[in-house]
Amino acid sequence: ANFLSEIKLVYREPFICSIARQLTSPAHLCSSLAHAEHENNMATAEDIGKHIALFERELEAVMAFWTAHSHDSKHGGFLHCLTESGEVFDTIKYGWVQGRQVWMYAKLYNTLPTYKTPEILEAAVRGGEFLLQHVKLHNEKRCYFAVTEEGKPLQLQRKPYTELFFTMAMTELYRATGDSKYQEEATAMLSQVIHWIRVDDSGLGRPKLAGSSPSQELGRPLILLNVLNEFCGADETLRKKYAGDLEWCVQAVLNHHDGQWVREHVSPEGNLLPGSAGRLTTPGHAIETGWFLLQEAKARGDVDLQRRAISHFIEQPCGYGWDEEHGGLFYFLDVGGHSPVQLEWSMKLWWVHSEALVAWLMAYQSSGRGEHWKAFVDMCQYTFSKFSDPKHGEWYGYLTREGKINQTCKGGPFKGCFHIPRSLLYCLMTLRELHTTSS
Q1: Alpha carbon distances (Å) from 229 to 257, 290, 311
Q2: Residue 314 contacts residue 360 (beta carbons within 8 Å)
Q3: So what's the pLDDT on residue 439?
Q4: pLDDT at 213
Q5: pTM attached to this predicted model
Q6: pLDDT score recorded for residue 26
Q7: Contact 428, 111 (CB under 8 A)
Q8: How deeply is 112 buried, as exposed, middle or buried, from its count of CB atoms within 10 A (0-12, 13-18, 19+)?
Q9: Parallel, antiparallel, or unpaired: how do β-strands 280-281 and 333-334 relate?
Q10: CA–CA separation, 305 vs 203, rounded Å?
Q11: The predicted structure's pLDDT at residue 33
Q12: CA distance 218 to 207
């Protein structure tokens, strides 16, 4: 800690800055922390404190990248298709990425004093207004998937995900501003997506073809569970109002676990489906589901749900999803042992490892088991050493199976200011809670 404090005094010198970035890089610090763990793998207050410093520093570097490069002061919203150094390589604005970044800014503003600044709030509000004026269809509960830099429509997707992240953005923006119009927008859109996901999705415009079999993809109940938890928060009145929807989401995601694997597609009743789609598993989705279930289990005080979340959706997917040869988590796998039809199946992606960090740490907080802390530390070691960019800030998103950088961009149609800072924020919050109890 003293060393880091002294480094700040000389950070303006280019040569010293270069050395300091190497010595205080996440990869270097994680390596040091990994060697400091005790034989029983239980975290001490000192261990937790060191990880708090690491996550604070990394969150600062990640957010500095987005605040410096992504704000569109002319048209509003965010320019998120960015190179590794932060240059804009495409001005298309993707609706779900816009919604995620608004939520992230508002969440940080509402959660951490460091980010409770007029600049963060102003950027969140400008992003929220861009969503309302250009991404959301006027007089309809639909959102464009992509718009131009100025906000002209480009693409309307036949999936509910942009609307789900619009709901999250409006929810958190209401908490940040107190402006009831954001709450009203969130409530109305939430009602629509619940209808699409639970009752009838024909309003999305996806035709029902004669040869297709009814199926349930994991992503829909998974994200709806997260959105409902964010929307309700600790408000018991809201949790009671949406109790049926929360329970439906929980049971729907549990249906994707077949005893060994978490399958990406099952029948609406939870039965197995034939073919490669029925054999597909996405470790990142399963692991993300795990910590969403832990959040719900904590809110309910449901010990059995907690156990199933850890065993079925964190331990198992992190086990079968881990690449024993090169390290890291696979993107896709075929549970039958066949080569997945997805060409990128063996790549290592930023969001998968971001979710694993949160999942293992929340598992440790819930269980108190040393092996969960060790798994968290090991995941830190791989993730920070492979994805984090100490030179420019932020993380690379796409690695080869061997862990080499495959694409240098820091943002694009699918990657924005969301998975990484959310992971860092939730890990930081959990670490601080653990530090309080361990002290």
Answers
A1: 21, 14, 21
A2: yes
A3: 72
A4: 87
A5: 0.92
A6: 59
A7: no
A8: middle
A9: antiparallel
A10: 33
A11: 55
A12: 20
Asked if 86 and 155 count as a contact pair (C-beta separation under 8 A), the reply is no
Q: How many CB atoms lie within 10 A of CB 423?
A: 27
Task: Let me know: does 322 contact 378? Beta carbons within 8 Å.
Answer: no
Place of tokens 């598993």: 281
pLDDT for 29:
55
Any idea how long the chain is?
A: 439
Which residues are registered as beta bridge partners of 281? 333
Return averaged pLDDT per consecutive 10 residues of the chain, 439 residues in all.
40 40 52 52 95 98 98 98 98 98 98 98 98 96 98 97 98 98 98 98 93 94 98 98 98 98 97 97 98 98 98 98 98 97 98 98 98 98 98 98 98 98 98 92
**Residues 6 or more apart whose Cβ sits within 8 Å of residue 241:** none
Structure tokens at 300: 């309910």
User: Could you tell me which residues come within 8 angstroms of residue 285 by beta carbon, excluding any fewer than 6 positions away?
Assistant: 218, 219, 222, 262, 264
The candidate with the shortest Cα–Cα distance to 165, out of 124, 83, 226, is 226
In degrees to the nearest 10, what's the CA dihedral of 306, 308, 313, 316? 130
154: nearest Cα among 433, 373, 413, 365:
413
Choose among 248, 253, 226, 246: nearest CA to 103: 226
